[in-house]
Amino acid sequence: MDDLERHNPQRPKGKRSTKSAPSTSHGLTARIVGAFGRHYLAQLDDGTVLACVPRGKRAEVVCGDRVTLAPGDAPLAIEQVHARRNALWREDLWRSKMFAANLDRVMLVTATYPGIQHGLIGRALIAADAADIPSTLLLNKCDLPQAEAARAEMRLYRDLGYEVLELSVRTDPQAALAVLTPLLSGQTTLLLGASGVGKSSLTNLLAPQAQAPTREISEALSAGKHTTTATRLYDLPGFPPGSVLMDSPGFQSFGLHHLSVSQLQHGFPEIRARNGQCRFQNCTHRDEPGCVFTTDPQAISASRLALYRTLYAELTSAAPR
Ligand SMILES: Nc1nc2c(ncn2[C@@H]2O[C@H](COP(=O)(O)OP(=O)(O)OP(=O)(O)O)[C@@H](O)[C@H]2O)c(=O)[nH]1
Ligand SMILES: [Zn+2]
Q1: Is the CB of 195 under 6 A from ligand 1?
Q2: From the CB of residue 153, how many other CB atoms can be counted at a distance below 10 Å?
Q3: Which residues, in sequence order, are bridge partners of residue 90?
Q4: What is the residue with the minimal CA distance to atom 32 of ligand 1?
Q5: What would the pLDDT profile of 264-299 be if each residue is shown by its tens digit?
Q6: Is the C-beta atom of 204 inside 6 A of ligand 1?
Q7: Which residue's CA is the nearest one to ligand 1's atom 21?
Q8: Domain 3-81 top-level CATH class
Q9: Which InterPro entries does UniProt cross-reference here (predicted)?
Q10: CATH T-level topology, domain 261-316
């Protein structure tokens, strides 16, 4: 087992990882604050932002990583990726790919309109659980008439033990700030949400500098074509030091193929709660006789059981979609 595997117990099965280069006493310590394909931005502790590239084709570097940069001309070489506390993956067409590291919390944004996407929420909650990262659900646009019905739908998650916060970013930004400030202070928070839920509105409220034109980034990196698929990390002005927000595209394709079946089951609090209550000890909760999730309709909601079975089939199929 090499360094990266030791520090990333949930990395995809069967993939070789790249050894970190040995550290040098002359290197600069920085945090990756922007990932644009193979081009990165790294921020030094004094706030200076530098363009950098990994040393070696197979090196895996993601937003939130702590790194050592080799001194030299821009773009600097990323010499070493420090041990990660945790990491999250998303999928492209062929594989799961790590995209964020060293998080304190995942905030999942949903909205009363255009509606709550339970499948996406379920996947993201499981991925965060498998990476041992706490998650909080935000229900935005509570000013709309659909709020009452949406609130009732979100009760499912409250009953499962998740924190669900309500806000209206556009119509009452001050109240939204008051609700979120205790959670964001001193923390690295990843914001995730489907298109149209108000994620950009929230990012712009919390980190107004996020609206900076991507041209500046393109110039810094000489890599304009990559800027649209960026994962970014923003300092939160007005918050205590160490308060940062990570913003990433790709919520629609949240990768779960790297998980084991036991991690999948652990990601469902209602399945965790009934551990050992099925007739067979190794019950997979699909079609076995005496399965508590088939015999007791109170054990799990029909939609969550359907999600579990879909994800089970995905995980155990030979290849990712
Ligand atoms: N009524 C209401 N509308 C909101 C609220 N927050 C955001 N919106 C609106 O919802 C729409 C989508 O907001 P965005 O912030 O662009 O949402 P997004 O999730 O970033 O969506 P994409 O840009 O498609 O990724 C915009 O028209 C916002 O003005 C809110 O609290 N209440
Ligand atoms: Zn069972």
Answers
A1: yes
A2: 15
A3: 97
A4: 141
A5: 999 999 999 999 999 999 999 999 999 999 999 999
A6: no
A7: 196
A8: mainly beta
A9: G_CP_dom, NA-bd_OB-fold, P-loop_NTPase, Ribosome_biogen_GTPase_RsgA, RsgA_GTPase_dom
A10: Ribonucleotide Reductase Protein R1; domain 1 (1.10.40)
